[in-house]
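DATA SHEET
Item: assembly model
Revision: 1
Owner: S.N.
Input lines:
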Amino acid sequence: MEATFASLLHGFAVALQPDNVWYAFLGCLVGTLVGVLPGIGPLSGISILLPVTFGLNATQAVIMLAGIYYGSQYGGSTTSILMRIPGEASSVMTCIDGHAMARKGRAGAALCIAAVGSWIAGTFGIVVLTVVAPPLANIALRFGPPEYTALLVLGLIFLAYMSSTSLIRTLTMACTGLMLGMIGIDNMTGHFRYSFDLAELGDGIGIVPVAVGLFGLGEILATPSTKVVGEVIAPRLRELLPNRQEWRESALPIARGSVLGFIIGIIPGSAHIISSFLSYALEKRVSKHPEEFGKGAVAGVAGPESANNAASTGAFVPMLALGLPTGPITAVLIGALMIHGVAAGPQLVNEHPDVFWGFVASMYVGNLMLLALNLPLVGLFVTVLRIPYAYLYPLIIMFCIIGVYEVSHSIVDVWIMLIMGVVGYALRKFGFDPAPLVLGLVIAPMFEQSLRQSLIMSNGNYMIFFQRGIALVLIAVSIVLLLLSAVSFVLRKDWRAKLAEAEGGEGG
Amino acid sequence: MIVRADHVAGAAFVAFGLGVFALSGDLPIGGLSMPGSGFMPTLVAGLLVLFGVVLALRAGESAPLADIDWSDAKHAILVILIAGAAIAAYTWAGFIVTMALMVFAFLVIVERRDLIRAAAYSIAATLIAYGVFAKGLNAPLPIGPFGF
């Protein structure tokens, strides 16, 4: 514990260097704007701005990109409360009671509760991350190829189990991502695979063109400007503070949301989205006045907003300690670290303590910055929200093209982005979530290598996954999850359908 | 029989999986004790075919294909065509010319905005972006035949 504390102090020494504070601030500001703007989510924001970090060192890059991630969770609540449009998916639940509060003249109070709840949850998440990640990384140092294979299988099955779409749809998307991840030179034999004589495909398909295409361009293709209409309720600065009753009503939901969100955040899947849905359901269940939900209940804002922020911090635990992405955003962050020559995973804490502890400490600083940013700058965000979408999306497409081209100065990447935009549009139409595809793409090289190494180690005996303790436990959990899914399938009692039903009911 | 969304989606994934099989002909699969470069693609393509079949078999739970809302398709096609033209011209016409024309085309062709305002906005936005990326962040942007 003392060693952790000393390392954290070292992290603060890194994070508080003026350059790093500046990049944390820039990340938080851009992240908040990304969260505020409809049509551009944290993933496309991070992907588009990834090339901007090429001139920075790894610590600065990850500090800035992570700032965009958790900043967007803060910013997403602003449009939800003021316009009833979720700036990003995890803010859907905040729309219901946040906007109802705004209609009752309590927009400022709703924004303040969302910001304070987000700050408390974010800080709670970082404290737990500080304590949990280093010992977990030490355990992960014992992992060999079979353990990594089992862990990745568990990650994929967990993702499918927790996903808001069906198990088959999620696994199909993950397999498509795995397939795309196998394009290029095979690291173990040197064979060119599916590169169609294009030298640019020799290194494989990059994460950035795929992520920007699926999430950035795909979203724009599916959103004509005529569909983006919104009336903004602008709060006055003096109305920003909640009254005593509202503070009291928000305290326990913030505490519950923080714990629930962090736990769900560690699990692979769309954790920050699921956590806000579950937190809303939990608050309604424990409330003495459930009839107030949907009409401006304070707990309906405080719980989900805290939960989605705690979840976004929780997602960093497996990313930093195991090198395992729990979702597409952490996958892109792992990609960003790799571009800077740093491998996320158990070695990170020992081999790159500046990056690890500087990053952790910067999150404490960043969360404080976000609290200071979100409330006083609400007027600026309202002004941004008034820019017509018709003028905004051409700029977003321009940034997508710049961002993707600048990664490796390859026009092939930009074409891939356009193709992925079309694929993303089609996937939306047919009810597929593209997030598992990005995850599959990122883990494909690691998954293939660890599976093949495991088989070589065991001379082709699959029992290697059942003969080693850690791998056995991981595979057993995977089997239990598959059995649970099979039971839901046979009994036709899918918790996702119930969640969607509940969402429809609340929203209505 | 009503054709449903998952019939089409399932068939697409089966076709994708079979396409991968067809393209994997020259890749050695190897054995379990020494898996070759075709081992994982074959495994994953097999899973894609399997999941595609399951999707198609369970298609009754999905919406009829005719019920999918394509009202945004015109917008999507125009955006794809304009962005595609811009990408084709990007490296030889240069950043400023391509991006200014692209933003202008979005505003005039897709959004039916006033010509003068659209021109002013597209030039100003492109120049600001050029200043931020090329000058502020030292990102090398493509240069056209006119030197910018």
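QC remark: The radius of gyration of chain B is 24 Å.
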